[in-house]
Design brief:
The complex is a heterodimer of chains A (about 900) and B (about 100). By secondary structure, chain A is of the alpha+beta class. Chain A has 23 helices and 47 strands. Chain B has a single domain, classed as Folate-binding superfamily (Folate-binding fold, 2-Layer Sandwich). The chains are: A alpha+beta (about 900), B mainly beta (about 100).
């Protein structure tokens, strides 16, 4: 074994490559690792692995870790660790380690490479199945490793089988429905500084298995007695392993307190490693079996019906002596000892089984909860299934009777500093459910999630309940409750779950065919769903306000162009397409002549407006629907749902073509002149090509479809062209547009222009509660046909007065742009008894209009359509903005500019 | 995460699907219903304990709707069937605690 050096709390220590940091610290004589979180009491190593409640450290070298038990850190040269009092802090610098994930589909997943898991793997391999074997330890063998034993050759053959994949340092953290397991493989930390830079530090495994075998083993549990938290008090299996396998030579005289034969085996290991075992104190009346005989043969004194009641410490707070009580006579005596090895029985690791709702069953024979499970899909093996091996004959015992003062320092959850006193207080307060007690006392809610304290809590409750019933014995833990855990089994770094999906890779970015042009033109972008859309195009020195005003003026007075390619586009074909659209839209589409366009509104069945857009009839059985940018996927799903699940008799096919067709909107009074220079094969005149008509044309031999659709209220032409040809058309417009002062505009100017015309944006001017009537759009609701949502308009609550309706707002101060979302109150409204004034609506869209020369807004106001001309007050902090309600159309009510 | 048998694509992870509540609720003739009957169609769906026939759509896969028996207590998955086909009988209860595996 290679010697390595590491630092702990700024002191240098030596250890061996790969051993647990806890072993290296103990060997160096560091018995007190940290102070406890709430009581500030010195604490040392208790256990062997992830169950460790005390020895918390933070790693400040390599990839920093805010909190880890020293029992799970594998030693590598140059590690720097600090003690931690139970509350970690995230490291400042970003975690730049690499994390990845992988999927695995296997016949059998075996969790746990101990004896039970390896035997199960062997059985499944023999049945011809492909096996994935995962285990959180650095090597296979489970307890055999702790005993320093090599794997028997038969089990080595299992590991070498060609149909078996074995992953070490791979912890199953969650078991979910249909045998879905998430596991965390730690791939590089153990290599320390020699880890390859490109190696993923942690790999998350998403595993689906036909069969899952749970063989996770068990944790040894402590006992509840006074001052049971001192450094020097350890689980016996851990103590014996540190001494016998990791050559910890700091203990002189050990006392073993046990409820089973495991204590004898550990006493024997301590004895053989040169530690004087003062005595074994066993709570049982009789003890027998090979383990007992072997311990007895070495001359270790054995005392039955006795256990540890209390402990005393030396000046440093570490264990000095142990107070033993005779359980029958209640007599006590004190004996000097620097190691108290406690064996309170085994608790199988039921965590994963309980993740999917399995309730562990109490077994008197094992003095613990087990999960014996054997179905086609899920099996348990090893200690979890109750196969403890050995000759253990545990007593159901969790600690001696303690008085009130002793109970104050009798710890159940070491990490939470929760004591028997706290538990008694909870029960005294009337709590009986284990779930309530957990929340009241916080037992089991720390980093270790109650791996050792969960069973102790049930045991202590058992004793309390037994005492409450007149000392009735035989009160079983099964009567109290059972163990139940939620994923994850051990803490999982968020970075591991995120994997590579960080930064730029967090979410897909969608860009249009003209994106690069926008970038080169200096556009500032805004996110619309996953789309990047130009927000505005500032010229050097221009503010956003300046740019947006300039863009608006160009669209109203000259000619401006925008990239509208993100509009959702759905190609709808089939002999029943027109009938289908009649049912989907509130207005009629079957009457729409070919080559013409119509604005449509769709509602959900409950009558609430859902999406809108212009649909063009390309042929008798062929329509091109446009949707809102954000609604494209939703609308397609909606159409499909009705076609597939309600109207299969309709022959209609819907295809998303959003990214097939680029749309260039050429807007403004001079748009016809500019377009006329580019398009010569069709007549663009008002008479030949009226508003809401669509024409097929070619530009430089490229087929285009031009439609007179306007989202600004100006004369406008939308040029639709194959995605790949859009840049060419766009460049041609710019080449010809110089003499027209062609201006590019973004989404902000688009919003101002459309709001000036009272054109709504679904989701901005609606909040999922508006009918077409609420939006003053009764003109779009057909009386002649059925459509989705129509029946709901008859429902009393949609017909009632008092609904919020879309109106315009003009602030008294022309320059005052009211914040969007601001609440509107009735002017001079009388406050209620609480001094509050009810709001009557809210502002949905608000801008400065360079065309109007003033600020304006759209708003949803209760019965607003009946309130024209009324004054309202909009409180913003201490300020009150006054405004008047008006019609939502601010410009060109007669549509002269649009239809020009 | 459920493992859902799409009738067209086979077993896929739940994240590929969207849920569509109770299966077999046909779109009624809206004008034949009273207001309260219509409101019931709009807003009320069964949500039983145990076996439940429900609608799913393989949104991130083939995009097709189908129906599926699922046990809302144990999360067991039963038979999938296509819309407008005969509904298979509800699976029997295994009575097995933790049969979610």
């Amino acid at each position: 074994m290679n010697e390595v050096s590491f630092s702990f709390d700024d002191k240098l220590y030596k250890g061996y490559q790969g051993e647990p940091m806890a072993a290296a610290l103990l060997r160096s004589g560091v018995l007190s690792i940290t102070n406890s979180t709430y009581h500030g009491r010195p604490r040392g190593v208790v256990g062997l692995g992830v169950e460790e409640p005390n020895a918390l450290v933070q790693l400040v070298s390599g990839t920093k870790e805010s909190m880890l038990p020293a029992t799970v850190i594998e030693m590598a040269d140059g590690l720097v660790a600090r003690s931690l009092t139970g509350i970690g802090a995230l490291p400042e610098p970003p975690d730049d380690a690499r994390y990845d994930k992988t999927n695995s589909y296997v016949d059998t997943l075996v969790i746990g490479a101990g004896f039970g898991g390896l035997m199960a793997a062997d059985e499944h391999l023999r049945a011809g199945r492909e096996v994935l074997l995962i285990d959180d330890q650095p090597g296979p063998g489970g307890h055999l490793r702790h005993l320093g034993l090599k794997l028997p050759s038969a089990l080595q053959d299992v590991l070498a089988h060609e149909n078996l994949t074995y992953l070490c340092r791979c912890t199953a953290v969650g078991l979910y429905d249909q045998n879905y397991v998430v596991a965390i493989e730690r791939r590089s930390d153990y290599l320390g500084n020699s880890a390859p830079a490109n190696m993923a530090r942690i790999r998350v495994w998403h595993i689906r298995a036909d069969q899952v075998v749970l063989a996770p083993g068990a944790f040894q549990r402590p006992l509840i007695f006074a001052n049971n938290d001192r450094p020097g008090i350890m689980l016996s299996h851990a103590a014996a392993t540190y001494v016998a396998v990791h050559s910890v030579r700091i203990f002189r005289c050990a006392v073993v307190a046990t409820v089973d034969n495991q204590g004898y085996r550990d006493a024997l290991r301590l004895h053989q490693a040169g530690v004087q075992v003062q005595a074994i104190y066993d709570v049982r009346t009789v003890a027998g079996g090979p383990s007992v005989d072997a311990a007895r043969a070495t001359g270790i004194p054995i005392r039955l019906r006795a256990t540890v009641l209390d402990t005393a410490s030396n000046a440093e707070g570490t264990l000095h002596s142990v107070i033993i009580q005779d359980l029958d006579t209640k007599e006590t005596f004190q004996t000097a000892s620097d190691l108290l090895a406690v064996s309170g029985g085994w608790t199988p690791i039921v965590d994963l089984a309980t993740h999917i709702g399995i309730k562990p069953k109490w077994s008197d024979k094992h003095a613990t909860f087990c999960v014996k499970y054997d179905t086609d899909r899920l099996l348990t093996a090893g200690m979890l299934a109750g196969d403890f091996g050995g000759d253990d004959d545990p007593s159901i015992f969790f600690g001696p009777e303690l008085d009130a003062e002793q109970a104050r320092h009798a710890y159940i959850d070491l990490q939470r500093d929760t004591t028997l006193h706290d538990l008694r207080r909870a029960v005294g307060a009337g709590l009986s459910s284990i779930e309530h007690i957990k929340r009241f006392t916080t037992i089991g809610t720390a980093h270790d999630q109650g791996k050792t304290s969960g069973m102790l809590t049930i045991g202590a409750l058992c004793q309390l309940n037994g005492a409450a019933q007149g000392g009735k014995s035989g009160f079983s833990p099964a009567d109290v409750g059972t163990l139940s855990f939620r994923p994850p089994y051990v803490p999982v770094p968020f970075a591991a779950l995120a994997g590579r999906e960080r930064g730029l890779l967090t979410d897909p970015i969608r860009i249009t065919s003209l994106h690069q042009w926008h970038v080169e033109a200096g556009a500032i972008f805004e996110d619309v769903g996953q789309w990047k859309r130009p927000w505005y195009f500032p010229k050097p020195g221009e503010s956003m306000e300046d740019a947006v005003r300039r863009e608006c003026v160009a669209a109203r007075q000259g000619v401006a162009v925008m990239d509208a390619s993100t509009l959702g586009k759905i190609d709808i074909q089939g002999p029943d397409a027109a009938v289908f659209l009649d049912r989907i839209y509130t207005n009629m589409f079957s009457t729409l002549p070919e080559g013409q366009c119509r604005y449509g509104l769709m509602c959900k069945a409950d009558g609430i407006v859902f999406d809108d857009g212009v649909t063009t009839r390309l042929g008798k059985n062929h329509f091109l629907m446009t949707t809102t940018t954000g609604g494209a996927a939703r609308v397609l799903a909606w159409l499909e749902e009705w076609l597939q699940t309600e109207w299969p008799e309709l022959k209609v096919y819907c295809t998303s073509v959003t990214e097939h067709i680029s749309t260039i909107a050429l807007v403004g009074p001079k748009s016809r002149l500019l377009l006329g220079e580019l398009v010569t094969d069709i007549d663009l005149s008002k008479e030949a090509f009226p508003f809401m008509h669509s024409r097929v044309s070619t530009i430089d031999g490229i087929p285009v479809r031009i439609a007179r659709i306007s989202f600004s209220g100006e004369l406008a032409f939308e040029i639709n062209v194959d995605w790949g040809h859009a840049r060419h058309i766009w460049e041609r417009l710019w080449a010809l547009g110089r003499s027209y002062y062609l201006t590019a505009y973004g989404t902000e100017a688009m919003h101002v222009l459309r709001a000036e015309k009272g054109y709504i944006i679904i989701g901005q001017d609606t909040d999922g509660t508006q009918t077409p009537y609420d939006l003053n759009m009764s003109w779009i609701v057909s009386k002649k046909k059925e459509f989705i949502g129509k029946r709901s308009f008859q429902l009393p609550y949609l017909k009632a007065t008092g609904r919020q309706q879309l109106v315009g707002l003009l602030p008294d101060n022309d320059d005052e742009v009211i914040p969007e979302g601001a609440y509107i109150t009735v002017l001079n409204a009388h406050p209620d008894e609480h001094g509050k004034t009810r709001h009557t609506g809210f502002v949905t869209s608000s801008y400065y209009s360079p065309t109007l020369g003033r600020a304006f807004a759209l708003a949803l106001v209760t019965d607003g359509l009946n309130w024209m001309g009324e004054q309202v007050a909009i409180p913003i902090g201490k300020k009150v903005i006054r405004a008047a309600i008006c019609d939502a159309v601010f410009i060109d009510k007669e549509n002269i500019r649009r239809d020009n | 995460m459920l493992y859902i048998p799409c009738p067209h694509c086979g077993l896929c992870n739940e994240t590929e699907f969207h849920y569509g509540a109770e299966a077999g609720v046909a779109y009624p003739d809206p004008n034949a219903l009273t207001d309260s009957e219509w409101a019931k169609y709009l807003h009320i769906r069964a949500n039983p304990k145990g076996w439940f026939a429900e609608r799913w759509v393989h949104f991130a896969g083939c995009g097709r709707w189908f129906n599926l028996w699922r046990n809302t207590i144990t999360h067991e998955i039963g038979l999938a069937y296509l819309p407008f086909t005969t509904q298979p009988k509800a699976p029997g209860n295994t009575g097995q605690e933790g049969s979610r595996a």
